[in-house]
């Protein structure tokens, strides 16, 4: 079984969708052979309650508790490695992880992004797509590297931008596709039909 650690900073809506998909697949003819073994957060504002109600262990590693970013990263890495995951997923984790974390976990460190990379990288991808007057954007799942949304792409999909879209309406449609990409990537990792080392090579 594929063991996952997921890191969140906010409501955890993508995480909830992944947990629901894994659970719903149990009674299907194509079960997703994966388990989220722990959920981590960088802020107490993160919705860790959604995991405790499912009996999943959680951990909180706040940057403010450490003298610098590197020390925070080392503590975060120690918490992740304690669970010996096959992959770690940044799911709405709104902080760049330090290089030592990337080097220790890559290529088994994944992230979703609300744009069709390399278009519109960074924290404001949805706003930037609208500001640019683009007719389409997308969603991407990638391997994390030390750049800002520059890692090797695992999968991505285009999403049209409607004339009446605002940031909220567009982001909601993107999230639907992000969740589908994340679920399918987890399914394929569990099946062994994608090889992260080959993608990262």
From TrEMBL:
<keyword id="KW-0808">Transferase</keyword>
<dbReference type="InterPro" id="IPR002376">
    <property type="entry name" value="Formyl_transf_N"/>
</dbReference>
<feature type="active site" description="Proton donor">
    <location>
        <position position="113"/>
    </location>
</feature>
<feature type="domain" description="Formyl transferase N-terminal">
    <location>
        <begin position="3"/>
        <end position="185"/>
    </location>
</feature>
<feature type="site" description="Raises pKa of active site His">
    <location>
        <position position="149"/>
    </location>
</feature>
<protein>
    <recommendedName>
        <fullName>Phosphoribosylglycinamide formyltransferase</fullName>
        <ecNumber>2.1.2.2</ecNumber>
    </recommendedName>
</protein>
<dbReference type="InterPro" id="IPR036477">
    <property type="entry name" value="Formyl_transf_N_sf"/>
</dbReference>
<feature type="binding site">
    <location>
        <begin position="94"/>
        <end position="97"/>
    </location>
    <ligand>
        <name>(6R)-10-formyltetrahydrofolate</name>
    </ligand>
</feature>
<comment type="pathway">
    <text>Purine metabolism; IMP biosynthesis via de novo pathway; N(2)-formyl-N(1)-(5-phospho-D-ribosyl)glycinamide from N(1)-(5-phospho-D-ribosyl)glycinamide (10-formyl THF route): step 1/1.</text>
</comment>
<dbReference type="GO" id="GO:0006189">
    <property type="term" value="P:'de novo' IMP biosynthetic process"/>
</dbReference>
<feature type="binding site">
    <location>
        <position position="69"/>
    </location>
    <ligand>
        <name>(6R)-10-formyltetrahydrofolate</name>
    </ligand>
</feature>
<dbReference type="GO" id="GO:0005829">
    <property type="term" value="C:cytosol"/>
</dbReference>
<dbReference type="InterPro" id="IPR004607">
    <property type="entry name" value="GART"/>
</dbReference>
<comment type="similarity">
    <text>Belongs to the GART family.</text>
</comment>
<keyword id="KW-0658">Purine biosynthesis</keyword>
<dbReference type="GO" id="GO:0004644">
    <property type="term" value="F:phosphoribosylglycinamide formyltransferase activity"/>
</dbReference>
<feature type="binding site">
    <location>
        <position position="111"/>
    </location>
    <ligand>
        <name>(6R)-10-formyltetrahydrofolate</name>
    </ligand>
</feature>
<dbReference type="Pfam" id="PF00551">
    <property type="entry name" value="Formyl_trans_N"/>
</dbReference>
<comment type="function">
    <text>Catalyzes the transfer of a formyl group from 10-formyltetrahydrofolate to 5-phospho-ribosyl-glycinamide (GAR), producing 5-phospho-ribosyl-N-formylglycinamide (FGAR) and tetrahydrofolate.</text>
</comment>
<feature type="binding site">
    <location>
        <begin position="12"/>
        <end position="14"/>
    </location>
    <ligand>
        <name>N(1)-(5-phospho-beta-D-ribosyl)glycinamide</name>
    </ligand>
</feature>
